Amino acid sequence: MLFTRIIPLDRYNWELCLNIRLTPEQESFIPPVLYSLAQAKFENLQPFGIEHGSEIVGLIMYGQFGGICWISRIMIDQAHQRKGIGTKALQQLLDQLQLKFTCKEIRTSYTLNNLGAARFFENMGFREMENALDDEIVAVYQPRI
Fold first, then answer.
1. Which of 48, 57, 101, 145 satisfies CB 3.0 to 4.6 Å to 6 for a cystine?
2. How many CB atoms lie within 10 A of CB 123?
3. If pLDDT is split at 50, 70 and 90, which confidence band does 69 have?
């Protein structure tokens, strides 16, 4: 069985994420990896590679703004989807964020018609907030007790 873990991206390993490919449907919801990495640099987001075995198969990143930690991206290469890798990676990030005293709340957002993301985040313990942004749903993490 292969081990899944999130690893911080740095100057030595960031290029390993450039081979991540999404399905055509997902490409309409999520910016490409290179855009995401540029966004991380300029918007003070923390990117992590998702390693499965010895291969980087995904990207996950978050930012912290005013005590709210926003999970702004999670993507798994199309060849590695539906194997539980995204679930394991997100759970690892949630575990880390819950240990940060500065994270008063954990949120994410996804487009209104991205039903796959809605199911994924709901299964991970996120609940939709009442006020949505334009065409996006904002969801807040509510840990299971």
1. 48
2. 10
3. very high
